[in-house]
Amino acid sequence: MKLTKPLERVLKTFLAHPDQPRYGYDLMQAARLPSGTLYPMLARLQDEGLVTSQWELPGDGDRDSSGRPPRKYYQLTGEGVRVARLEIAQAASRQAPAAARRTVQRSARPSPGSAQ
Amino acid sequence: MTGRLAEYLIRRACRRLPADTRDDRCREWTAEVRAILEDPGTGPAMLRSARALGYALGIWKCAHHPRLREQSARRAGVVRVARGVGIYLGILGLVAGFGLVFGMPQGPLPAILIIVLALCFDGFCLTDLARAREVRYLPKWGWALACLVQSPLGGIMYLSAGRVRS
After folding, report:
1. pTM recorded for the entire structure
2. Which CATH code for domain A5-101?
3. Domain locations in chain A?
4. Hey, which of A19, A77, B6, B104 would disulfide with B56, CB 3.0 to 4.6 Å?
């Protein structure tokens, strides 16, 4: 699984509350992604068994859901939580040495005027 | 008005999706549009309309996305396995036909040639397997075993069914 920036944002959004099912628009706003990016990604995560979806039950909504049709909710599976945590940790450890190297290079560069 | 336009865009987008996911997707996205339009927490009516329209436009664009257009994973898997068996039977048929027309090859040389070819193919499959980041349906060792035990068939099945194109 290649961890792109949008995918990372979606996984982090899910991991903020792993037990809470989220609907598509909620995820879009939380991860700051357009619908055209989010849904293909969710489809892929579902194919890989990392995310499950279920329809909202009638009378299940937080507000009066009597008027509108049921929404679909997405949630990480147990495997999904494990993989997401792992991927994000790996991404962090990939970035950390690179950032450290940049800092070292910058400090190691001889300042203008120093003899060397 | 905006709601109608948004729902129209979503219906158009859903028409491009495969039949087994079309209705499900259409219901999901229509419900989201209605919820965006009716949620007073989002902001004033103008803003809600703009959001709903932006949402529908995004859906309309992404209906071309291969991930959404693909049949459900299980069906695609069955198709791939069937294709693998078909390729294998086709090769068998070609070899048998060749043998019937030109006479069965005799002697040790053709046998050695066939064994060498099969070993090359196994080697190719195993290196591909070793380099792959992920495989489908079976664990890596399962595919490796299949390649080795069922010499040509296992490799063909792996290439057609188990391999994930990157």
Report:
1. 0.58
2. 1.10.10.10
3. 5-101
4. B6
